[in-house]
Amino acid sequence: MLNLAILISGRGSNMKAILEAIRSNKLKGIKKVIVISNKSDAPGLKIARDEFGVQTVAVTTKAKEDFENELLSVLNRYDFGVNDTLICLAGFMRIIGPTIINKFRHKIVNIHPSLLPSFKGLNAQRQALDAGVKISGCTVHFVDTGVDTGPIILQKCVPVLSYDTDQTLSDRILVLEHEAYVTAIELISSNRIKVKNNKVIEN
User: Fold this and answer.
1) Which of 67, 126, 143, 153 is the most exposed place for a label (fewest CB within 10 A)?
2) Which CATH superfamily is domain 110-203 in?
3) Burial class for 196, CB neighbours closer than 10 Å (0-12, 13-18, 19+)
4) Where in the chain is the domain with CATH 3.40.50.170?
């Protein structure tokens, strides 16, 4: 059984998709969930509490080292240990530092709105449009100390249309993000993948 610590900064649409999958039993093997935000007014906190009855915590410390120490303290307080916890970044707009990444090695996942390794970092949809690519999508990957450089778990594709804007492309990719994140968590919770030579392979 796996514990999920979902980290958000805003509305948490991927968080909501994950929680809906757990509630509908599409995502199994999850023992307990906590939602943590770096913003006390993040709309996703209310959604997690009111719609799903999930424990929520705001960690708003500004200094990087203090933030990481408080985040680790919260995980420890609610018994989210290294061996049984997966940390899911779902629109989390703070960089996770090496202290936590190394402690939770291959236990932190993120979703990015491009087909990595293309278009890392911010404004990935705009980067794709500016480059004139014909296919874009999303990537679920393990987090390492680089920017969107960790081992890729899975990817989903969408065509880039001639009339696409940042928003229309983002909206279509977001639908796939919800599916991809749930699938990736299911792969991890069922021990069907492992990381070897910085690549994700099926067991």
Assistant:
1) 126
2) Formyl transferase, N-terminal domain (3.40.50.170)
3) exposed
4) 1-104, 110-203
Do 87 and 101 meet the contact criterion of CB atoms below 8 Å apart?
no
Helix ranges (DSSP H) in the chain: 13-23, 43-46, 52, 64-77, 98-103, 124-131, 166-189
Question: Is 106 among the catalytic positions?
Answer: no
DSSP state of 96: P
Task: Quote the pLDDT of residue 40.
Answer: 97
Candidate CATH numbers 3.30.450.20, 3.30.70.2190, 3.40.50.1370, 3.40.50.170; the one for domain 1-104: 3.40.50.170
**Do residues 117 and 33 touch, judged by C-beta distance below 8 A?**
no
Instruction: Respond yes or no on whether the N-terminal peptide bond of residue 117 is cis (omega within 30° of 0).
Output: yes
3-state secondary structure of 74: helix
pTM over 0.90: yes
